[in-house]
Amino acid sequence: MTADKAIAVLLIEDNLGDSRLIEIHLAEQTGYLFRVTVRPTLDEGLRTLGEGGIDVVLLDLSLPDSQGLETLRVVLEQAGETPVVVLSGLDDVALTVRAVQNGAQDYLVKGRGDGEVIRRAILHAIERQRFRSQLLMAEAVFNHTGTGMMVTDANGMVTRVNPAFLDVTGFTESEVVGRTAWVLSSDLHDPSFHQDMRRHLDQTGTWEGEVWSRRRDGSIHPEWLRVNAVQGPTGTILGYVTIFSDLTFRARAEEDLVRQATTDALTGLPNRALFGRLLASGVQRALRYDRLLGLLFIDLDGFKAVNDRFGHEAGDDVLREVARRLRRAVRLSDEVARLGGDEFTVLLSEVRGLEDAEMVAAKVVQALGAPFMVLGERVPLSASVGIATVPTHGADAEQLLRAADEAMYAAKKAGKNRYTFARRAGL
């Protein structure tokens, strides 16, 4: 509110002495001009408020035609975006706090403040209401825009996502908030890509470009990403706002080609070609950043008998069910792929030790050990799982895959329906 424009104050107060004192306080020489309109009843105050042109309402909660918080409720309904400051003749903290909780911008105890207190309360109420309106508008844009938005703190931890983000990615809010933004990473970009992105973001405060992201169901899609740093008054980075523009429709032909080249047509999982890229980039990243990477090699026990007895279509149904069970059994950060036939792999990118890999392997054995319904008949199957990790069981993608494969065969020889760790590299 500028000092050269009179601030229109509607004072709804039935006590002539109190209203006169407030008028005198607001008429004192300051940098602001106040034009006060006094109304002694709620009904008269509402009529004046409905005529418009009011910047702030000073409201007595005890009026001849209304009492207490009900008075505030009625005025707030009429006031819309006009801020309301409550006047109380009682030093009742509980009542005034409830008034603020119910929508008043501030409260004043009559007779306990000079002109400066009243003027400051009015000005602060107007600014708070303006700021609140801006926040509500920003919140509406955030929630109703068709563009996905994600907010992270300075460390890349997700603090908020909007509904459009959830629609595009398939994640729920609880699966994303509180985790790092890497949950969306498709692993199709090599480490240098992310390093260049971070370097440019640190230098300029923004980054924009096309990326491949991963939806919750494991599918990969192209997005146009814009990341903006949010700075505090001193220039400190408070966090980042990321805007996602889904390129699915613009790049449908390109995505179809990628899908055909990288996705198993039967199960929808990444195929051998895509798995090879994921494994190679995962091993490279694990070695570079001294992290642990795990690999499960899975082969079904008894699947050939299902094909021979029930036919290939029934066998395909079983493989699709295997894919579904695997996705449910592993963690959100794990990548499930089908290499072909009844061979599957799980890439474990977030393991802290061998016990983490063992835990996932145990869940896989349990999930695939439950009977399958084949043409209305319960058919028992099981899985043999080999476990290998970088760098314990191999120093490159080929060694790791071979070690996991050999461990899987060891599990079969040991009686099937179990998991086995690979031998340490060099033994």
TrEMBL record:
Modified sites of kind 4-aspartylphosphate: D60
Protein transport as UniProt keyword: no
GO terms under biological process: phosphorelay signal transduction system
InterPro entries: CheY-like_superfamily, DGC-Regulatory_Protein, GGDEF_dom, Nucleotide_cyclase, PAS, PAS-assoc_C, PAS-like_dom_sf, Rev_trsase/Diguanyl_cyclase
Keyword Phosphoprotein: yes
Protein's UniProt name: Guanylate cyclase
SUPFAM superfamilies associated with the record: CheY-like (SSF52172), Nucleotide cyclase (SSF55073), PYP-like sensor domain (PAS domain) (SSF55785)
Ranges where the PAS domain occurs: 141-204
Entries under Pfam families matching the protein: GGDEF (PF00990), PAS_9 (PF13426), Response_reg (PF00072)
Segments forming domain Response regulatory: 8-125
Matching SMART domains: GGDEF, PAS, REC
Gene Ontology MF: a single term: catalytic activity
Location of the GGDEF domain: 291-424
Keywords: Phosphoprotein
Organism in which the protein naturally occurs: Pararhodospirillum oryzae
Superkingdom of the organism of origin: Bacteria
Chain ranges of the PAC domain: 207-259
